[in-house]
Design a protein that fits this description.
Elements: H1 3-10, H2 23-31, E1 36-44, E2 48-55, E3 60-62, E4 66-68, E5 74-75, E6 88-90, H3 96-111, E7 117-122, E8 128-132, E9 137-140, H4 145-159, H5 161-166, E10 167-171, E11 177-182, E12 201-203
Parallel strand pairs: 3-6, 6-7, 9-10
Antiparallel strand pairs: 1-2, 3-4, 4-5, 7-8, 8-9, 10-11, 11-12
Length: 204
């Protein structure tokens, strides 16, 4: 947030006499700006109004148009283009703090396998979808998603980095295993070769 943004919204209120300025109105106006976490306003003799602003800090994006702080406060500035590198999370209405906490755990678990989270989505029915910076997508149902994600991550060292890079989608909605779809440009795999990928459905 720039000083010019603050000046623009306050201009109509500070054009009156110094002593006629409505300090509470100024504070309310500044506090209502999307980026503002808190604001204090004070008169300084003889002709100054001191405004201190504490800004919200974007932690990740909430959907395509909003940002969210690390504490789970959603705010929607006019333009978030400068934050396009932040990962995106999305979830049910009024559940952003819970979604944020789940995302933090998933981000750490993926990082342990040198995987970087790009997007995390929880639907209204609490099905999960993960997208990595590599482009891989991981789909999970409502039934024990964290347990199934951990099970998949345990197999990552076995598959090897080349095979992991070749995966397009991992479907964890299976009782005892998971299925994978390969990227379209991958050379056809010899499933009978034990040194190649074990199967397109991998059991626990």
């Amino acid at each position: 947030m720039s000083k010019d943004e603050v000046k623009a919204v306050l201009q109509p209120q500070v054009s009156t006499d110094f002593f006629d300025v409505d300090m509470q109105s100024i504070q309310d106006t500044v506090a209502s700006l999307p980026w503002v976490k808190a604001a204090t306003v004070a008169r300084i003799w003889p002709d100054t109004i001191d405004i201190k602003v504490h800004e919200k800090k974007a932690y990740v994006r909430w959907g395509k148009k909003s940002l969210i702080t690390e504490r789970g406060d959603i705010f929607t500035p006019k333009n978030i283009d400068a934050f396009h590198d932040l990962l995106i999370i999305e979830g049910p209405v009024q559940q952003q703090k819970k979604v944020l906490e789940v995302m933090k755990g998933i981000k750490t678990a993926l990082a342990d396998q040198s995987m970087e989270l790009a997007e995390f989505n929880i639907s209204e029915r609490w099905t999960w979808k993960i997208k990595l910076k590599s482009g891989m997508q991981i789909v999970m149902g409502r039934n024990e998603p964290l347990k199934k994600l951990q099970r998949f991550l345990k197999t990552v060292p076995i598959l090897g980095q080349d095979k992991i890079n070749a995966i397009d989608v991992v479907d964890l909605r299976y009782l005892n295993g998971y299925a994978v779809s390969w990227k379209p440009d991958i050379v056809e795999i010899d499933w009978l070769n034990p040194t190649d990928v074990p199967n397109n459905k991998i059991n626990e």
